[in-house]
Design a protein that fits this description.
It is built from 4 helices and 25 strands. A 5-stranded antiparallel sheet has the order 1-6-5-4-3, with no helix packed on it. The protein is mainly beta.
Length: about 300
C-alpha cells in the first residue's frame, strides 16, 4: 500500500489568511441575494487528505471515528486510520469513473456501497473488491449520483440516478421503483438528485438535494415532500451535499461553490456556517456520531470542523 503525508503549501497559507475575512464576505453575499440570516462561524480547516486530489465521497467508520474512507473523482479509494493525518491506497473501482458517494451497511460493517459514474457498486470485504448492483436504467451502467439506506431497515435503499431521478428498493437492491412524488413536488418530469440524507433518529424523515431546485424533505418515506430551502433563493438551488447529525435535529448542506449551511431545527431555518472561495464544490459531508466533528469533501481535498455544536 502507498502511504504519504500532505505538506502545507503556500496555497493553503493563502487560504488561512483569507479565513479572517470569511464572515464579512459571507454577509455581503447573503445580503446581495435578498436574504439575511444570522451568520454563524464554524472553523473549517483543510486536513492532510489525499494530496492534490478531488475528494468526491467520504465516510466515517461506525466503530472508529478516526477511520475515514475517501473516494476520488479518479475512481480511487483511500483510507485513513488516524483521523486524516495519513492515507493509504485501498482500491480502484472499475470501470473508472468518479465516486460520488460511499455508504457503510449499519449491520455488516464490511459491506460498503459506492455510487459512481459507472453504476452502483457493492463491496463485501471492506472496499477492496467491488461488484455491480443492477438498476432498471437503459443504456448500460448509469451515472449514480448518490445513495442511502434506512439505518433501521437496511434492506430499504434509495439511489439518485442521472436521467432516472430517485429510485427506491425495498428488497436489498434486487428490484427498484421510481419515487414519482419527488418529481411532482419539484415540478419536473425527472429530478437530478445530487444527495440523499436519512434522519438517523427517525428514518421516515429524509432530505434530498435536487440540482437547480433545492432541498426537499419527506417525513413519510417519500409519499409526500416539502420544499425546505425556498427562502434561500439561489443558495438553496446550488445544494450538492447533505448530512444529518446523529441527533436528527442538525442538518448541513454544502453547495456547488463551497458554501455550507446549517439548520438546527430539522430544516425549518438555515444559517451559513462557511463561505466558500477557492474550494469550489462541496462534494460530501459526514459527521462523527455523538461528537461535534464534521468532515467535508471538496474539489481540493478534505475539510474538517470540530466546533459544529448543535446549539
Amino acid at each position: 500500500m502507498t502511504h504519504f503525508r500532505h505538506s502545507h503549501s503556500s496555497f493553503q497559507q493563502w487560504l488561512s489568511i483569507l479565513a479572517d475575512c470569511r464572515c464579512y464576505f459571507a454577509a455581503v453575499l447573503v445580503l446581495a441575494q435578498g436574504c439575511a440570516p444570522e451568520i454563524t462561524t464554524l472553523g473549517w480547516e483543510h486536513t492532510r487528505g489525499p494530496a492534490a486530489q478531488n475528494v468526491s465521497a467520504l465516510i466515517i467508520s461506525a466503530t472508529d471515528a478516526r477511520q475515514l474512507t475517501a473516494g476520488l473523482t479518479t475512481g480511487e479509494l483511500f483510507r485513513s486510520t488516524d483521523g486524516g493525518d495519513t492515507w493509504a491506497s485501498l482500491a480502484l473501482i472499475k470501470p473508472i469513473a468518479p465516486i460520488h458517494r460511499l455508504i457503510q451497511h449499519p449491520e455488516d460493517l464490511s459491506r460498503l456501497y459506492a455510487a459512481t459514474g459507472s453504476g452502483l457498486k457493492e463491496s463485501l470485504d471492506g472496499g477492496r473488491s467491488w461488484e455491480n448492483v443492477l438498476l432498471p436504467v437503459a443504456g448500460g451502467l448509469p451515472d449514480v449520483q448518490t445513495m442511502a439506506l434506512d439505518p433501521y431497515s437496511p434492506s430499504i435503499l434509495f439511489a439518485g440516478v442521472h436521467t432516472a431521478g430517485l429510485l427506491r428498493s425495498n428488497n436489498d437492491g434486487k428490484s427498484w421503483a421510481p419515487v414519482r412524488q419527488l418529481a411532482l413536488a419539484a415540478s419536473d418530469s425527472v429530478v437530478d438528485v445530487r444527495d440523499i440524507a436519512i434522519d438517523p433518529v427517525n428514518p421516515s424523515a429524509m432530505y434530498v438535494a435536487v440540482m437547480g431546485k433545492g432541498i426537499f424533505k419527506t417525513t413519510n418515506r417519500g409519499d409526500s415532500w416539502t420544499y425546505v430551502t425556498r427562502k434561500l433563493g439561489i443558495h438553496g438551488t446550488k445544494a450538492s451535499a447533505l448530512c444529518v447529525a446523529s441527533t436528527g435535529r442538525t442538518v448541513l448542506y454544502g453547495t456547488a461553490n463551497g458554501n455550507i449551511f446549517r439548520s438546527t431545527d430539522e430544516g425549518e431555518t438555515w444559517n451559513p456556517v462557511r463561505q466558500g472561495y477557492l474550494d469550489r464544490q462541496i462534494t460530501s459531508i459526514s459527521s462523527v456520531p455523538e461528537e461535534k466533528t464534521f468532515y467535508a469533501g471538496t474539489d481540493l481535498g478534505i475539510l474538517a470542523s470540530t466546533d459544529g455544536r448543535e446549539h
